Amino acid sequence: MSTNNDASKPAEAAESSAVQQTNGEGAVEQKGDEVANGHADNIFQITVKLPHAPYEHAITISTSEQVQDLRQAIIETPQLFQYSCFHLELDGQRINDYVELSEVPGLKPDAVLNLVEDPYTEKEARMHVIRVRELVGAAGDRTDALHGILAGLSLHDTVGQEESGKGEESTEQTPLSSYDFKAGGSVKTLQAPTQEPAPKTIKAISVSPWNPPPYHLRSKGHLLYLLLTTNENEQHHITATVAGFYVNKSSNAKFDPSPRQAPKAHSAHSLLTLLEELSPSFSQAFQSYLEHTQKRDPLTFFQLSNAIPANPWLVPAPNSTHTTHQPDLARTQESYLISGVENTETLRDWNEEFQSTREMPKEAVQDRVFRERLTSKLFADYNDAATRGAMLVARGEIAPLNPTEARDAQIFVYNNIFYSFGADGVGTFGTEGGDEAARVAVGKDVFGVRAVNNLDIPNLFTSGTVVVDYLGKRIVGQSIVPGIFKQRDPGEHQIDYGAVEGKEIVADDKSFIPLFEQMSKALRVKKHPVWDKDNVRHELEGSVETKGLIGTDGRRYALDLYRLTPVDVSWIEEHWSEPSEDGKEKEEGKDYPHRMATLRPELVESFGRLKLREYVKKELEKKGEAKKEKEEENSKKTEGESDEVAKEEAEAAEQDRVDISGFSYALNPDVFCGQHPQTEEDKAEWTKDEAEVRAACSHLLFEVMPRLIQELKDGDVGFPMDGQSLSLLLHKRGINIRYLGELAELSDKEDPRLQALRRLVIQEMIARGFKHFANSKLRNVSAPFAAPCAAHLLNCLLGGEVNAKPVAESDAELKSLYPENDFSFEKLTPEDVKKEIIAQVALRYRFELDEAWIEPGKQLQMLREVALKLGLQLENKEYVFTKQSAANGPSNAATTTNGNSTSGKKKKGKTASPARDASPAPQIVQTFHADDILNIVPIVKEASPKSLLAEEALEAGRMSVAQDQKELGQELLLESLTLHEQIYGVLHPEVARVYHTLSNLLFNLDDKAAALELAHKAVIVSERTLGIDHTDTVLAYLNLALFEHATGNGNTALVYVRHALELWKIVYGVDHPDSITTLNNAAVMLQTLKNFPESKVWFEASLSICEEVSGKNSINTATLLFQTAQSLALVKDMPGAVKRMRESFIIFKEVLGVEDRNTKEAEQWLEQLTTSAVTQAKQSQALASGRLRRLQLGNRGALRPQAAVGQTTNETTTANRPRSGTNRVDQRSIEELMKYIDGESPKKTPKKRTPTANPKRRTQKASS
Length: 1264
Known about the structure:
Layout: H1 15-23, H2 25-29, H3 32-36, E1 43-49, E2 56-62, H4 67-75, E3 86-90, E4 93-94, E5 112-117, H5 122-135, H6 161-167, E6 204-207, H7 215-218, E7 222-229, E8 235-241, E9 244-247, E10 267-268, H8 271-278, H9 282-294, E11 314-315, H10 329-339, H11 350-358, H12 365-395, E12 411-414, E13 417-421, H13 434-455, E14 460-461, E15 465-470, E16 473-479, E17 497-500, E18 505-508, H14 513-522, E19 528-531, E20 537-540, E21 547-550, E22 556-559, H15 569-575, H16 601-622, H17 628-639, H18 644-656, H19 680-714, H20 723-732, H21 740-746, H22 752-778, H23 786-798, H24 812-815, H25 830-845, H26 859-870, E23 872-875, H27 883-888, E24 933-936, E25 939-942, H28 948-962, H29 966-984, H30 989-1004, H31 1008-1025, H32 1031-1046, H33 1050-1067, H34 1075-1088, H35 1092-1110, H36 1115-1130, H37 1134-1152, H38 1157-1175, H39 1187-1190, H40 1209-1215, H41 1219-1222, H42 1230-1237, H43 1253-1263
Parallel strand pairs: 1-5, 11-23, 14-22
Antiparallel strand pairs: 1-2, 3-4, 3-5, 6-7, 7-8, 8-9, 9-10, 12-13, 13-16, 15-16, 15-25, 17-18, 19-20, 21-22, 23-24
Helix pairs in contact: 5-10, 11-12, 12-29, 16-17, 16-18, 19-22, 21-22, 22-23, 22-25, 22-26, 23-25, 28-29, 29-30, 30-31, 30-32, 31-32, 32-33, 33-34, 34-35, 35-36, 36-37, 37-38
Keywords: Cytoplasm, RNA-binding, TPR repeat
Family: Belongs to the CLU family.
GO molecular function: mRNA binding
């Protein structure tokens, strides 16, 4: 495999650079093992001879590719679009399509291959029609049940389009000129600008009403009949035969599929060629259609095949140009075209596919790539199919297998996937908390399955598992394990290992021991005894809840993986009471809804690291006093927790050769779960196990949480922006979401950063409380009432100020059809909902909201959180949350209008759209109407494993770069990129992350062009797979801006900065603690563009947030004061500059002392500025001003990458170390600056500086 594996594919990174790398022999040598596998790469050119013009085509291939890849490259080449049914020949011999190119005999550089057209089969003909429809843009819009409106949208190509028109003429106007620091977020940021429609190549093409061919013609080779309407409005009936396509004599009334006579006879092997012959305007229209699609980056519109696309939560109105619904007869015929008359081609035996992929060889690197690529695709297909089925189950479209049971106990099978509800239908979790416990257990089960999938233990299998939350219901989809429904003989258990039917019987089939042993070792699960109802002792490798089943296919399956870690005993003891026999109420404060509160695997790991440190420390103490100093140094070192810890331990262990083979650490997951040890020995061991688990719990409470709070306070960790990034940060540290209340308490301090954290945590608790309450209401209404129910609940949550008594807009006529529905949601008022949420938050997070509620001005953020959690897609318009904004436009909410509000203000002067009169037009002023909720999409949890191979290559590349082996590092990084793209496909969240990481690393290796290209891709892939306003997307835009700036595209960089800041306002609101860095970067960029007045405004904005967040006397503030003083000097505001510089000097002196370099530098500047202010005389002292910026002063300064949420700033800056040097932003000596200030500007900058205009701009800015 090479870095240039897919040279012919459009999605490959800069081809030339990759080819050079591959030919840089030295680097390749060191990757010995891969070369040893016989995959040293050959890349060369071959020629393909064609049956039609242009008669030949040259293609570059790599011998490590499959023949399939070469075929793909051929059919994706514009001149060769017409070929889809063909084979290749070399020297008269047919080439097998399913081998690797290196296995083709006689294939060498400059070989000539012949492309030979094959006869069509019915399936090939159908595929050809689908392909041609896609190619010529004849396929209309799809209404896909799974993917929501504009799923996988990307704004990347349209960001700043409005700016670019006006940006060129005036140097004074920059993309940041009109930015308002204090205004709230505008939903227009999330709206794609309208695109001109693609040119139409044909009117329509569909399967003809005469299809399928009758028997006597089928035997003559007729496959399909098609109906074509050209742009000239002519209708043609076309026959598809084994030899190709021709125009036949049929009409709409008469059937005659024989060819027409000359001069109207037209036939061709490819439908595309036939279209060109039939329609005079087709060739030109097709050309302009291709040009139209090429304007956009192909990544922005390729279909996602390996990941579920992100659904935007705000989407254009139904009558906007983005979502026009086109007539297209063939849309209804697509499932026939794709899967044939019998529709059997799409039914797959998922379980067999999963397990046989698992059993594929993984010795050679090539085998691993193939296996992981297949695994990734298979999981993607399964998740897609399982989610579709789950939606049908939730809507009641599928008949249950056991219709006589209660609804929660019903099970379904659809498309070879087994579905059940995430509720306690049969009472399995009676003592653990019933439905609540079942809901949590299935969620944990998915993560357990993923953990086991990632371990990839040979011969241990799992079933494909997906959990879908949709319309308030939680549905589990599993691939069917053969034998799971089999009735066993009397005396045989349903399960072969673990608990059977509750915990009364325990099975322990010996064949599972070696498999579960590997699993438990990796997951830190201790081997331990359990007892059945007769007190018989069974030694188990895993938890008693984890079950093993021998399928009828002879494979061993691990099931019910929700209990891989011990319960969080401190939480349970404090907040849970066992259900009493006589059904008494639970006591006050001990009413947590379920007993499934377990510790997170990340916590188990971090506690393990702590135990290892203690072990090493003890061993070192045993080694004697000689190394005492070293030991102290070590323990100091290991106190700070971070990912480096493991490395440090490794080094410490190396130095002192501590033998850690004696160290073992595992926790018993069954303690505190009703087991009764019998013998004294067991009791003692059990007590020890209990103590370990208690220690882990207190490690969480007294170590992990306070440390996180401290790191967020000190700004050592990227600050979370929204609920998603907050959850991710907590989970990374091993903190469960149930501790949100505890975190809110811990962060209730004076510190402004902690106050910001507390506000975010409270917002998250309210959103989650609302989610639980909303789901309980949505669960009991049918699909047609989901939108009215959601809109009414949102009105109660967010629209109470506009209308204290919102009215639910259910259709009264429909209600009578659903007598079993629960319409109690209609009676709810904002007070009721608030009361319910306060109760939910108290119940789940042990936090009293009291006065704390949704902050004024943060309603949009709350709406976003709730919409993402419930899968709502709302119409994109400015919603009114306050009396005042409702008064601004009296008509605004009274009509059920839509269309995009163009004014940044509220919706004035909209015209009602007659198209939507179906719903009763409400004349009530309220924030949300049922018509605003355009769609509800499923929220999916799935268990696809990561690619170990791609991760290993990435890690190896990082290590090499860290050890200064730049060439090898770069080679490995590009290798890892190729692997990621090959295994996951390009459009996948993992690939977005790797693009982001690699763009940073390559930028530091000074490969700026490649870094910039990857940064663009990172943005597009993040937008399409994570969301256009996901926190990773915001960071990807900020990164992209830095690289654009560094490559000299100052204005483009500012466009991206602005977009990121506008997104930030929607995601978080104004003044995010980490935005100081971004504002500062923007100011530095403006300074580089010589726009000094504006840069001054940005420095001051950055300074004001910094003073709020870090305090007036912090080094960060001093650094910013220093920069602000320089910017004031540049706009000749001498008194202001002196004042700021003096403040900076005073802080440096107090905090760092008189001798510090920064203090001295500030002092010199202060003298110069003072002198200059007094005399405006020329001074010269060559002291570079940029020095200050290069010091690691809390890492503020030159352009810095934004710390990813939860990443320590240390990690970010070590990954990006050379950055400060690459930006000679202010390496001006004081002398130059003074010269400029005194009016001697250097000659190089014509027409940039019109001092007369600047003060005016500045005053406008100030007044605005």
